[in-house]
Write a structure and sequence with these properties.
By secondary structure, this protein is of the alpha/beta class. It is built from 38 helices and 20 strands. It has a six-stranded parallel β-sheet, with helices on both faces. Helix 17 runs antiparallel to helix 18, helix 30 runs antiparallel to helix 31 and helix 34 packs parallel to helix 38. The longest helix is centred in the N-terminal third of the chain and has 22 residues. The radius of gyration is 28 Å and the shape is elongated. The N and C termini lie far apart (67 Å). The model has no long low-confidence stretch (mean pLDDT 93).
C-alpha cells in the first residue's frame, strides 16, 4: 500500500510519471489557486499571527508535560468507564487493538480517517489477523478499494478523477456506475451504511485528547466519524501522545485555525468531543465498550529534542502540502511516504526510517511557503535542512562532500571560477550564455539557457569603481554572493551607483565568500559553519550601518540561519547575531532607509512585472518596497501568482530539473500574460532561472535585477 523510492534514480522515474498525469496537474493547480484565495479571505476575520502563537505556545507546553497529561487523561477517562492504553510502538499498538477486538468477539471493523492508524499501518495487520476492516471516510474508502495510501492528509483521494472512482464503484457494486459526482456519493452512502450497521467495532482517530476531562475529539466534514464512534458496540480511539492538550480551551483555540488552514472553512461540519463510554443499543448490556490507545512510537524522545519537539505543534491540517509548489506538480504519493507534504518529509525520518527519508527529504525547493502558512508556526524548512545534515553525518554524501571541499576554500573556489571564465569561451561565443554545448550533454537541464561567467568579476572591478564620499550619510558594506560577484557583477555595480548618488559610503570586503546556503541545502553542516565563520570575520559588523545584499536567498540565510546555526556556540553566536542584525536586502535599504521616491526617478513608462523571490517575500517578509520601487521607475503590472516559486532553489534545480522546468514554465506563462516587456526580481538565482527561460523560449521580455532598473532611471 505504501511504497517509498529506494534511490534518487528510481524517485526521478516516479516523478516523471506524476508530471505526465495531466488530470493530477489540473486538479492540484485548480485547488492550489482556489485554496490560496479562499484561505486569505477566511483568515481576515481573525488575528492569524496571534492565534498561531497561542497554538504554538500551548502545544509546546503540552509537549513538555506529555507524561503528566497522559496520566491526567487516563485518570479522568477511567472515571468515565474508558480503558486507556499506552503503546510503545506500532507492534504494541497492533497487539492491543487486536486483543480488544478478540476479547469482544469482533468480526467486522469500521474506521474513520486516522493518520495515526496509517502511521502504524493498522489495516493490513488487522486483516492479517482475520478481521474485516472497512474505511468509511469517502476518500479513504476509495483509496482502500484501490489498495493505495492517502495522497493528502485531509483529502486522501484528491489525485483521482470521477472516472476512476466510477470504475472502482462499478467493481465493488457489480453495477455499471455513471460519472456524476452526486450519484457516486449516493452509491458510497448506501454501501457504507450497510457497513456501519454490520460493524462490531469502530476505530477512530483523534484530533485532540483533552486531559482535564478525558475527552477525545474528531473533526470531520462527512459525519462518518460519528457513525463509527456511536453505532458499533466497541469504540477504539487511537492517538499519538502529541494529541494531548491540557484543556478544552486549547482545543477550541486550535479549532479556530485548523479548519481555516485545512479547507478554508470557519468550522468543519462535525466537531465531536467524547468524554466517557456512552449508552449503546447494539451492546448486550446497553453500554459501549470504549478504549483509547495512545501511541508513543518515538514521540517521548522527540519531545526532549530542543529543535524537533516543535513538530508536535502540527494539527494535521495539511496546509503545508496545499501551498507546496512541488506537491502541486507531483502529488502526495511522491511528496511524502505516509505523512504528506513538508511535515511528512520530517515525520518519515522519525517514524518510518532514515533510509526512506534520505531520498524524500531532498525534494524540498526551500521556498518557505509551508513555514509561512503553518498553523503551529513550525519552522519546517529548517527542520528539513537539519534532517539532511543528520543524514549526511550518518550516511555520507560523496557529491556534497566534493562541493563542500570547494566552497569552504574561498581561494580555491574563486580561482576555479576565474579559470571557468577562460575555459568557457568555446561554448559561449562571447555571449552571456552557454550556446554551443551539445543538447545531449544538457539532458534534462536543457529547459533553460545557462549563464556564462562574467569577463570581469565584481571584486576585480571594485578598486576601479569604489566611490569616494566626502560626507557620507551612511556607511555600508556589500555582501556580494557568488552569482553577482562572478556572473552578474553589473547588478552590484548598479547598486553602487545608486548608493553613491545618495551619499552612502560603500565598502566591499574581499575576504567574503559564498553565504553557505548551498552547503546547508546539501546537508554539509560542517562546511557550512566554516564558511559562516569566514564571512563573519570578513566583515567588521560594528563599522557599518548596514550590510547590504542584493540576493534575497543570501539575505535570509545570513539574517536568520547564521544565528540559528551558532545558537550554542558562545562568542561565535554573539558575532553571528551582531552580523545578522546589520544585514538588509537592497530594496528595503533604498526604499525604507534612503527613502527613494518617485521624484528620484525618470519614470520610463515601460510595462514592468515582478517575480517575488521566495526568500524575500517569505523569508524576510519584504513585499511592499519592491513593488513601490518598480512603480516609481516604470509602470508596474502585477503578475498572476507573483509569489509562487520560479523553481530555481539553488542546487534543487540541478537535482530535480524536471520539476524546476515545470515551475519555470508556469511562471513564464504568467509573465507572458501580463504583456510586460520587462521582468524584475530581487535575487540573482531567480534572474538566472528566469533569464535562462526567456532566452530559451526567445521571449520578448528583459529580465533584470531591481538594482538595474532603478540605476537606469535614477535622475542625475
Amino acid at each position: 500500500m505504501h511504497e517509498a523510492p529506494k534511490n534518487l534514480s528510481e524517485y526521478r522515474k516516479e516523478i516523471d510519471k506524476a508530471l505526465d498525469d495531466n488530470f493530477l496537474r489540473r486538479t492540484l493547480d485548480t485547488f492550489a489557486v482556489a485554496y490560496r484565495a479562499n484561505r486569505e479571505a477566511i483568515f481576515k476575520e481573525v488575528d492569524e499571527k496571534a492565534l498561531i502563537k497561542q497554538i504554538a505556545d500551548a502545544k509546546d507546553d503540552a509537549c513538555k508535560h506529555m507524561d503528566e497529561l497522559y496520566e491526567q487523561f487516563r485518570a479522568e477517562a477511567e472515571k468515565r468507564g474508558v480503558h486507556v492504553y499506552r503503546a510503545a510502538d506500532a507492534k504494541e499498538a497492533h497487539e492491543i487493538i487486536a486483543r480488544i477486538a478478540k476479547e469482544n468477539d469482533v468480526k467486522k471493523i469500521v474506521k474513520s480517517k486516522s493518520m495515526t492508524a496509517e502511521e502504524i499501518q493498522l489495516n493490513p495487520y488487522l486483516e492479517k489477523e482475520g478481521f474485516i476492516v472497512d474505511e468509511t471516510d469517502l476518500g479513504e474508502w476509495i483509496i482502500q478499494l484501490r489498495h493505495e495510501g492517502p495522497s493528502h492528509m485531509v483529502m486522501p483521494a484528491i489525485h483521482l478523477s470521477r472516472y476512476q472512482v466510477a470504475d472502482d464503484f462499478t467493481k465493488v457494486t457489480g453495477v455499471k456506475q455513471d460519472t456524476d459526482v452526486q450519484r457516486l456519493v449516493k452509491v458510497a452512502r448506501v454501501q457504507l451504511r450497510r457497513k456501519f450497521l454490520a460493524a462490531d467495532m469502530g476505530v477512530s482517530g483523534c484530533n485532540f485528547a483533552v486531559a482535564e476531562c478525558g475527552a477525545v475529539s474528531t473533526v470531520t466534514n462527512e459525519g462518518n466519524a460519528r457513525m463509527v464512534t456511536t453505532v458499533p458496540r466497541v469504540h477504539v480511539a487511537i492517538a499519538g501522545l502529541d494529541k494531548l492538550v491540557p484543556t478544552i480551551d486549547v482545543a477550541l483555540t486550535a479549532l479556530q485555525v485548523l479548519p481555516r488552514n485545512a479547507t478554508a472553512q470557519r468550522l468543519t461540519s462535525y466537531v465531536t468531543f467524547i468524554a466517557g463510554a456512552t449508552e449503546c443499543g447494539s451492546a448486550s448490556d446497553g453500554k459501549k465498550s470504549m478504549h483509547v490507545v495512545f501511541l508513543d512510537n518515538g514521540r517521548s524522545e522527540i519531545a526532549k529534542d530542543p529543535l524537533f519537539s516543535q513538530i508536535f505543534r502540527c494539527v494535521r491540517c495539511g496546509a503545508c502540502a496545499n501551498v507546496c509548489p512541488v506537491f502541486r506538480l507531483v502529488g502526495g504519493h511522491k511528496m511524502g511516504y505516509i505523512y504528506i507534504g513538508a511535515i511528512g518529509l520530517i515525520l518519515t525520518y522519525f517514524f518510518h526510517g532514515k533510509d526512506i527519508a534520505k531520498t524524500l527529504c531532498q525534494n524540498c525547493v526551500g521556498c518557505e511557503s509551508c513555514k509561512n502558512i503553518c498553523a503551529g508556526g513550525i519552522d519546517l524548512p529548517r527542520l528539513i535542512r537539519e534532517i539532511r545534515a543528520r543524514l549526511v553525518d550518518e550516511k555520507g554524501d560523496s557529491v556534497g562532500a566534493l562541493v563542500s571541499s570547494v566552497l569552504k576554500n574561498r581561494k580555491m573556489f574563486h580561482n576555479l571560477l576565474k579559470f571557468a571564465k577562460f575555459a568557457q569561451k568555446p561554448v559561449t561565443g562571447g555571449t552571456p550564455f552557454v550556446r554551443h554545448l551539445p543538447e545531449f550533454l544538457l539532458g534534462k537541464h536543457g529547459f533553460k539557457a545557462l549563464p556564462a561567467i562574467a569577463n570581469e568579476s565584481f571584486r576585480d572591478r571594485w578598486p576601479r569603481i569604489a566611490p569616494r564620499i566626502a560626507k557620507p550619510k551612511f556607511k555600508v558594506a556589500i555582501f556580494g554572493g557568488c552569482a553577482q560577484d562572478f556572473i552578474y557583477p553589473e547588478q552590484l555595480e548598479a547598486c553602487v551607483k545608486i548608493l553613491a548618488a545618495k551619499d552612502v559610503a560603500v565598502d566591499y570586503p574581499m575576504e567574503q565568500s559564498c553565504c553557505g546556503l548551498p552547503l546547508e541545502m546539501l546537508g554539509q553542516r560542517k562546511a557550512s559553519l566554516q564558511v559562516l565563520e569566514q564571512n563573519i570575520n570578513a566583515f567588521d559588523a560594528g563599522a557599518y550601518d548596514a550590510i547590504i545584499t542584493l540576493c534575497a536567498s543570501c539575505a535570509s540565510h545570513l539574517k536568520h540561519t547564521y544565528p540559528q546555526l551558532t545558537e550554542n556556540m558562545g562568542d561565535l553566536h554573539a558575532k553571528a547575531q551582531a552580523f545578522a542584525d546589520k544585514v538588509m536586502d537592497f530594496s528595503s535599504f533604498v526604499h525604507d532607509v534612503l527613502g527613494l521616491k518617485p521624484e528620484d526617478f525618470n519614470n520610463s513608462g515601460e510595462k514592468v512585472t515582478y517575480h517575488a523571490s521566495c526568500h524575500l517575500c517569505r523569508g524576510l517578509n519584504v513585499r511592499k518596497a519592491p513593488r513601490e520601487l518598480i512603480a516609481d521607475a516604470a509602470t508596474y503590472v502585477p503578475c498572476e501568482e507573483e509569489e509562487v516559486c520560479c523553481g530555481f532553489g539553488g542546487s534543487y534545480s540541478a537535482k530535480f530539473p524536471e520539476i524546476s522546468a515545470q515551475l519555470l514554465e508556469n511562471k513564464l506563462k504568467h509573465v507572458e500574460e501580463t504583456g510586460a516587456t520587462r521582468l524584475v526580481v530581487d535575487c540573482p538565482g531567480c534572474v538566472m532561472q528566469l533569464r535562462g527561460g526567456t532566452e530559451k523560449k526567445k521571449m520578448n521580455v528583459k529580465v533584470s535585477h531591481m538594482s538595474e532598473l532603478l540605476a537606469e532611471q535614477l535622475k542625475k
